[in-house]
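Chapter review: from sequence to fold.
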Amino acid sequence: MALDKDIYSAFADVVGEENICDDPVMMAAYYKTDFAAVIMPGNTAEVQAVVKLCNKYKLKYRPISCGWTGVFIPGTVMLDLRRMDKIIEIDEKNMYAVCEPYVTSAQLQAELFKRGLNTNIKGSGAQGSALLRGHGPMDQSCGADDRNHLAVEWVTPEGDLVKIGSLGSCDEFFCGDGPGPSLRCLVQSTVPPSCTPGVFTKVATKVYHWPGPERYHLKGNSPNYSLAEKPPYMMLRYYSFPSVDKLMDAEYKLGEAEICFILYGINMAMVSANVTSSNEEQEALFHKIAGEVQGPGFVVILAGNSEKDFEYKKKVLETIIAATGGESLKAVEEEPQIEDTLMRQCTRVSGAIRETFRPGGYFKSIPVMGQRDLTVRWAIGAGEAKKPLIEKGLIVDDGGAFFGWGVEHGHLGKTEIFCAFSPMNPEAWKVVDAWESEEGGRALDENYFALTMSPLDVIDEKTGPKLSNYHLWWYKVLDELDPNGVIPLKGVSKLTP
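The token string follows.
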């Protein structure tokens, strides 16, 4: 669905001829969707102008930054924000950074490390936008991500500019709450990016203390890097437990002690994937170390500010692990490259995308958020449902394990389980789709919030009646924010791969 020439020219007048394209070959490089055009605004004013033109001509549009996006429908105008990639400010005193939407977590973290600071990287990985909402392994030390976004510069669905938080009253980004009611919920939706109206153009995100080095010095060749020098006062261990109850008891106690830089419920298959360079090596290591664990487990990273601080945290960790029956995985203790690799990848959240979901395979995932111990019990059932598929050789053998992490002293958390399989096997596609539908539906039925690959309004219809019919109120808000219907949030019948 190509744009009318006059409309195309109107957009080109705003962003320049070099920053708009409707060539089907170019658009196919983004997603398998019949876009009307791809437009690359370079600043807030251009975003506003483009959005106003979309309203004028009744064109649906969706913004994208760094590629982590979901819902598109034919005829959509894509706003590719890659030209807006600047770190505008790092305020070391007030502990925040102001970024444009295409700034990646890796980009921001690299600058923060130089200043003894860090950012909460989401589970989508270090190449995702630093402004993406979500949860990740560093939630233990950085808190729930909902609270990390502060003042926001936001272009509404109609193209108006709104400044939220302290930015709205004093032109400063230091605080998420300004005078009057908080409006952050309007721009920080629960399911990014499927239901966020409008466009972020600038956001301040909290930054945190980083006790590690300014950069990791590596040796070896990709992907088999190891640390040339281990950071002082840092340690990584993997602990397994005899039961889920013991695992959760340890998580709660460690959360309350507030000693962990990272507490990440990674499973053995993911450990193996992150430290090997081929599917064959991954499978061999998985079967080798899986027999050494007694049950579910997690990775812990300690990071001390001094020798005394490190030794204190280490003693508390050892006491809690002993009290809950945890056992350390010897392979991690005895093979420095495994500890090195996991430490680097967990603190930069680089392994989730590059190693765990290695090219040559495909995966479907069901993330569930809620009370951590209950979501873990849900995941056990989802893992059991995978075992027949593993036995038939249709999906990768990961033992049916889950992964995830806790926030808010370990009580609130995210638990996730995925199926990895060959995209060349039609039968695998069929059974994994069925597994995802069944187990994702079970999560919704059991009152968990599940990020299944379902249209937004399908999720709303399942969860809304159980949560004060929030979706009906949300749709009324959307109707007010988007009177011309240019934001494709409702009525989306399918998702693109």
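Two observations follow directly from the output. Residues 360-453 form a domain with the GMP Synthetase; Chain A, domain 3 fold (CATH 3.30.300.330). The longest helix spans residues 372-391.
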